[in-house]
Write a structure and sequence with these properties.
heterodimer, A: alpha/beta, Transcription Regulator spoIIAA, 5-stranded mixed sheet, globular, B: alpha+beta, Heat Shock Protein 90, 5-stranded antiparallel sheet
Chain lengths: ~110, ~150
């Protein structure tokens, strides 16, 4: 069972994805761990990917599924994309679907401001 | 001078992961920059996952990788004895549409799109019960080999 670290702030919670890969071998466990990590708490969640070096299309699908399973009216942002992770989001144009922050601290500043 | 990397792995997700790690180290050692290493790793992850999930569809099997690095490009051949590609050719790889409605967003279907986008050439052959997929990558930004 994959366990994700969750840090709750006033209006946003930060979920830290364990590295170094969200890939085909990890995608289902990751999606289920995201369900547990986001089942309650604020409507606004930021997934901190700074420990993740590599995401394949299965991992990308799991991140999309994690957003969809949060339900209507809730929001999943991403933060801290490594270069190869950013490349997969850019090529598939999924970078137009998610709000992507430079890092988790930047997402908190933006939520507060 | 050409340099080569040959491996044979079991067709499962953890073996694919270990192979990608090892391959990435090799690519760095022969002097490829991070951007080139990244595109090769992304495309090969998709190609290897396809073999595990579709050609063998969860049944045991082996995958062989033969990678050759020359001055201007990098060529990788994957061989397996799983099911042939439908219609005996790699799919066109059109990316799924990104709908405005969140529930309709695709959770898959990007594999062949990524492979085609990141390679210069793609060749497939089915011969004597074996799939042979060759991916050719341009190496535009070479750096000096690590000492």
């Amino acid at each position: 069972m994959m366990k994700l670290e969750v840090t709750s702030h006033d209006t946003v919670s930060i979920v830290t994805a364990p590295g170094p890969r969200i890939d085909a071998a990890a995608a289902i466990r990751f999606k289920e761990a995201m369900r547990a990590a986001t089942s309650d708490g604020p409507d606004h969640v930021v997934l901190d990917l700074s420990q993740v070096r590599f995401v394949d299309s299965s991992g990308l699908g799991a991140i999309v599924a994690a957003m969809k399973q949060m339900g209507a009216g809730r929001r999943l942002d991403l933060a801290g994309l490594a270069p190869d992770v950013a490349k997969v989001f850019r090529l598939t144009r999924m970078d137009t679907v998610f709000v992507i922050h430079e890092d988790a601290e930047a997402s908190l500043r933006r939520a507060a401001g | 001078m050409a340099k080569a990397f040959h491996r044979r792995i079991a067709a499962d997700g953890m073996a694919v992961r270990a192979l990608l790690d090892e391959m990435r180290d090799w690519l760095s050692q022969v002097g490829l920059d991070d951007a080139s290493c990244g595109k090769i790793e992304i495309a090969l992850a998709e190609a290897l996952n396809n073999v595990v999930e579709h050609a063998y569809a969860g049944t045991p099997g082996a995958i062989r990788m033969e990678m050759t690095h020359t001055e201007g490009d990098l060529q990788v051949t994957l061989r397996d004895k799983g099911a042939a590609l439908p219609r005996l050719r790699p799919p066109a790889g059109h990316p799924p549409a990104l709908h405005d409605e969140r529930d309709a967003l695709p959770e898959g279907g990007f594999g062949w799109f990524l492979i085609r986008n990141l390679t210069r050439g793609l060749h497939y052959a089915r011969d004597a019960g074996e799939n042979r997929l060759t991916l050719v990558f341009d190496l535009e930004h070479r750096t000096d080999p690590a000492p």
